[in-house]
Amino acid sequence: MRHVIPTAEQIREIPAALSAAVTACQIDDNGHMNVLHYLDLSSQAADVLMRELGVDESYRGDRRLGVFTAEHHLVYYSELRAGDPFTVHVRVLERSDKAMHLMTFLVDDKRDVLSNTLEIMLVHVDLEERRASPVPDDLAAALDRKIAAGNALTWPAPVCGSLRIRR
């Protein structure tokens, strides 16, 4: 499957969930940011979005509901080096009654290019039973608003094709 990679300008149509610069401790023996940090930063950005949508400490503590990562797929487009500024943007692609498909975009703000994407499949869970559980109406509505905003963008998300909502 041939992907059309969105430009940094296109990605910035999605508000940044995180903004920082690569630190020296994130650099590996090859002189660029280690794979673990791409995953960590993208996961943190997805967490920022989920908290914005209401999946926070109260959601987990009071409602005893949460989300688990079921699968993810990382793709690298350009390396980041120490001191490079970056932003991470999150797009909600689709959802079902129990799952959510997200994609993060890590933008190299120094070179104005996409550095990395992370596709994430989340499953909504009942934290008591530790099983998949229907997404409550308030979270479903918030997700649907994000999906609509993503669908209004003029560019397709460069999905891997193997992660998708099972219907």
Q: Can you characterise this structure?
A:
- The structure is a single chain.
- By secondary structure, this protein is of the alpha+beta class.
- It contains 4 helices and 6 strands.
- The chain has helices at residues 8-11, 35-52, 57-62, 137-151; strands at 16-21, 65-76, 85-95, 99-108, 113-126, 131-132.
- Strands 1, 2, 3, 4, 5 and 6 form a 6-stranded antiparallel sheet that branches.
- A hairpin with a 4-residue loop joins β5 and β6 (131-132).
- The protein is globular.
- The model has no long low-confidence stretch (mean pLDDT 96).
How would you describe this structure in keywords?
alpha+beta, globular, 33% strand, 167 residues
Summarize the structure.
The chain is of the alpha+beta class and 167 residues long. The protein has helices spanning 8-11, 35-52, 57-62, 137-151; strands at residues 16-21, 65-76, 85-95, 99-108, 113-126, 131-132.
User: Residue share in helices?
Assistant: 25-40%
- Report the portion of residues in β strands: 25-35%
Unreliable stretches, pLDDT < 50, 5 or more residues?
none
For the terminal residues, how far apart are their CA atoms?
22 Å
Mean pLDDT: 96
Q: Please report the total strand number as a whole number.
A: 6
Structural class: alpha+beta
Order of helices and strands: HEHHEEEEEH
Radius of gyration: 16 Å
How would the global form be characterised?
globular
